[in-house]
Amino acid sequence: MKKITENSKLSEVWATPVGHDVFAKILMQMGISEKVIKAPVVRSLKLGKIMRLAKHTPLFEKGTDPAVIDKVTQAIIHVINSEPDEVVPKNEAPKPAWWKEAVFYQIYPRSFKDSNGDGTGDLRGIIEKLDYLKDLGVNALWLSPIYDSPQDDNGYDIRDYRKIDPMFGSMEDFDELLAGVHERGMHLIMDLVVNHTSDEHEWFKAALADPESKYRDYYFFREAGGAGAGGETVENSTVSGGKAPATGNQLRAGAPPNNWDSFFSGPAWNYYKDQNVWALHLFSKKQMDLNWDNPNVREDVYDMIRFWLDKGVDGFRMDVINYISKEPGLPDGDPTIGKLMNFTGVEHYFYGPRMHEYFHEIHEKAFAPYNAFSVGETPGFGMKMAQLATAEERGELDMIFSFDHLETPGHVRYDDYRYDLNYLRDYMVDWMQNYGSQCWMSLFYNNHDNPRMASKVDPRVGNDPVLRRRIQTLLAVLQFTLRGTPFVYQGDEMGLVNYDFVGIDELSDVEVRGFYKQFLETMTPEAAWEKALCGTRDHARELLPWNDFPADRPDRLNQQADPEIEKLYKELIALRAGSPALIYGGFALLDGRKDHFCYMRGKDGTSYVVDCNLGAHTVKSSFDGPIQGFRLVFDTTKGFARTEEQALRRPDDRLAPYEARIWVK
Ligand code: ISL
After folding, report:
1. 377 a catalytic residue
2. 3-state SS of 62-111?
3. Which of 11, 160, 222, 224 could cysteine-pair with 148, CB 3.0–4.6 Å?
């Protein structure tokens, strides 16, 4: 591929996969529509010129030194040119696979079902609910981590990969669960958390205790420079306080080895006073990053993967798997990119130099021999990067989770704002039309890291059941009729929305607790709480309503399951399962005007049309089903058509707020 320089036109940059995704991301962070790139004047501008023009945007402070702008430009060019390949999207019939036909259901074990009354969900609780899940129609389960862990980040900090955490049960319970899943004709995938281990993992303990240990190079240790090294330390394994210095590559006595931020606030380095060393952690201070450049790390990880595949698990969801390759030397992050992305250093590992090599190796050495399924969690990936990681011919991952649809441009999870579904439509249309038939999309709105989507669309859903059902129905219709594999998050089918937490003491997530402290440094307690409440991951982590609520938690937090929504999920899942056109069929956009989303899915002579109002006001539909010979399958306001008469009914030519209709011919 042609190398990009500051003299390349934006159209040339946009034609490269990484250039496309990076610029899409920059626009998104700045709250600017991608449509600007379509303008011919913009397309013919040279990259260097655009960056200099950007000094008039909030990206740069007034009077920024041109040398600073030049550095950002070079940093961007470096990532763009690191990718020599591109994927040409195909438009053929997709190859069939069980995971394309499946509907996945994500279980967050600690809050799913408590079988022994200790207030925490467990494996036996999941076993108790297998018939419920089967009946719902889902046919694959993804379990968030159940491994032995100090639970600093709810199990995403693993102490022993081959042991079940006693809070969830035993290995016998797990074996029984897996057998129960398979008996019911379902699949089970586990969470693979191998960007980091717990600081209590044997490897890390050995590495810290002995610089000569073979495990030392399993992590990123850096000797602290000179006297006075180390920020504030507490006990033996704690971080330096405050923000790391933002610039400069020179050795900073007493400062961390580079300026990278942790995603959970503060610098990405722990200082270990007794050993006078630093170690890298992109997430919590108990989640230590593994050095994937060390072949022994990789072999040990593949061994562990085989341990679970030998038991019969069907595949893995791979936690932050795009972060595993870091730029050698761990150079400082560019401060401007850091400001834009909210975290300094990301450009050195979100699309690292050996990432594809490792994806390929995991596939070859661990997954392919078992025909195991993989879905990578890849924060920061746009569609082109996703193609490079998932196109069949590349032998890397089966699917990825991209997150760019979870917030509208210009917003982050902690902002108080209304999500505009017109953005979701544009995002989906782009993927439907351009992802390519050799790639397969994951379809989800919720997971354990995000507030519930319906609450973002309209925060009043908590007090207005009619509005809530409308929005949830619309989201469900889209999820089960677009092309891709739906991932239902536990509680989606119950109609759960965000919780009215009243204070920080009700929140237990390690992320929000760090951020809340940080917010308090610059804002009033009320404003800090507002932000924490908007973004906290706790919304999705409360015990499901079918549990007995622990005595120390106020009852009002326990939302009720909505049987109407559950029934709807069942029917929509069944509709999808029985319709090859909805699974493998092509996609055509029929109407994408403001607040409209009308599309066709078709295969082998069967066509579905899905006609939606994305807004809070009535709109006129442009699709007349009966005239075109279509029968009504479902209508938000009337439910599923059960009789011939209902199927042939001509509904109002206007769509009510958030109404969705499904037609078939
Ligand atoms: O990277 C981020 C910001 O750009 C995060 O939002 C990131 O996407 C997310 O935190 C990664 O999530 C996964 O890894 C974490 C864990 O806390 C999450 O629960 C998990 O889903 C660390 O293992």
Report:
1. yes
2. CCCCHHHHHHHHHHHHHHHHCCCCCCCCCCCCCCCCHHHHCCEEEECHHH
3. 160
